[in-house]
Batch of 2 targets.
Target 1
Amino acid sequence: MLAVVLVLSITAGVSLGTVNLPFKRVWEIIFAKIFNKELVDVNLNEISIVWQIRLPRVLTGAIVGAGLAIAGTVIQSLVRNSLADPYLLGISSGACTGAVFMILFASSLFNIVLTGLEVYFAAFLGAMLAFILVFFIAGSSKGGLNPVRMILSGLAVSYIFSAITNFMVYLSQHNGAESAMFWMLGGLGGARWGRLGVPFVIVILALIIFMLNARNLNALLLGDESAAAVGVDIVKFRRFLFVASSVLTGVIVAVSGSIGFVGLIVPHAVRLIAGADHERVLPIGALAGAIFLIWADLFSRTVIAPRELPLGIITGFVGAPFFIWLLTRNKH
């Protein structure tokens, strides 16, 4: 059912916008491009809108949504905290710092003409730097990585990188600050066909790898002693999850900027419907995350068209009430 809804969501995402196109026309253009057939009585502007602008953007949204949902599911198991999300470990803040530095200062300091790829590469380097810092801080104790130290280390690193990012935006005044702020709040405006391959492969590989470890993830939710009793090497497995989820989050943030709450609300919604078994939660969550972000992006680019809202604002409006509900539902 979710696969069907995903196809319908992709169709709607490509069809709807400032210029609405019939669903049939959208698929005529897509199939013609895939099978290299000529299009008859089709406006060239419509072909450009569908194939060059909207389709890569919608597919990027699906990949990002799926990746954030997968990362959120794993991180909640990793730290055994139902209120955790992919940005808890400081990776997002590191990516923001790298990207904002490239946007605001790289052209003046290094005489670089930005094409877009440099920003993504800088964001990924910033994410990996944050990951290394959190890894060494959290793993510096004799007990190695444990949920509490990981959360605290992630928060500390996140605050450090956030302060650096805000300082850079403050120094730049109006020189590129608007572009930097839009990227910090997340968006899919930079989606291109050439930038789909890496995140798509990483998300698929991450889903497969985590699915193969679904049994150990289930055991980890029961606590360290229970997981060890069924043969899970807690230290090695937690280190593996930390590295894998950090790389996944780093790639996603490098593509889309900081889009919050998706990794929090989607895994929870899926668990309410499908239970806690990761063999179900991971694939269903990936599909649900893809669908959710496609519609969130569609809303962000149409609600005040022709202007576009950052995706982080839309997901914040949806996610914050859901977060409050999670905090209060068990108060009695």
Note: The chain has a mean pLDDT of 87.
Target 2
Amino acid sequence: MTKESLRIVTWNCNGALRKKWGRLSTFKADVYVVQECEDPCQANDAAYTAWCGNHLWTGTHKNKGIGVFASSHLTLQAIPLDLGRLELFLPCIVNSDWPLLATWTKKANSPNFGYIGQLWKFLQVHRPFLAHPRAMLIGDLNSNTQWDQWDRWWNHSDVVRELSELGLESCYHRHYSEVQGKETRPTFFLHRNAEKPYHIDYGFTGRQWTVRKVEVGANSDWLTESDHLPLAFDLERSE
């Protein structure tokens, strides 16, 4: 990829990335955002830790966190935002240039603000972090507009609207000209059941990124590895 182009992949690997990174690498991405992966610094697999190389990781358990893995030509700088008990977010700056918020929203033991509610709360406190024309929000949101509730003010649609106000739009929806909640390409299959498809993985990017291609992994290739399919974005920087 040239300096003006970037390939990013997000994937909830459903654990044991040390056994799956080789297959994931076939995407030849510049940045991988991976949920449910183990901490490379505590892994006893030399090949896995070597592949991880340039990475950041956070999690509540050494075997299940979120990682950002970048090619050697990119730099990653963790940003120590006060996240409190919010789960799970990994804010960083890539190439000393643009902010990336890697996400894996969880229930977080919250009776009222689980999953997309966690991201809504993040935005109320840390909105400035994503106020950048090249900002990115990438990951497993465990959410979709189809699950909006009429009496809730932090629905998926509300979060999408707040991101749009910051200039961030979903790469998938831009590329395929689909609306939120009407996706034709699922990214998740409950219990790996092909009859229970959902679209819950996303990549939102700022206005200075042009979306050239979006690719969703095939069921036949990936459901043996995880209940999620990888989602790849080919981007080009435009001033």
Note: The domain at 5-237 is CATH 3.60.10.10 (Deoxyribonuclease I; Chain A).
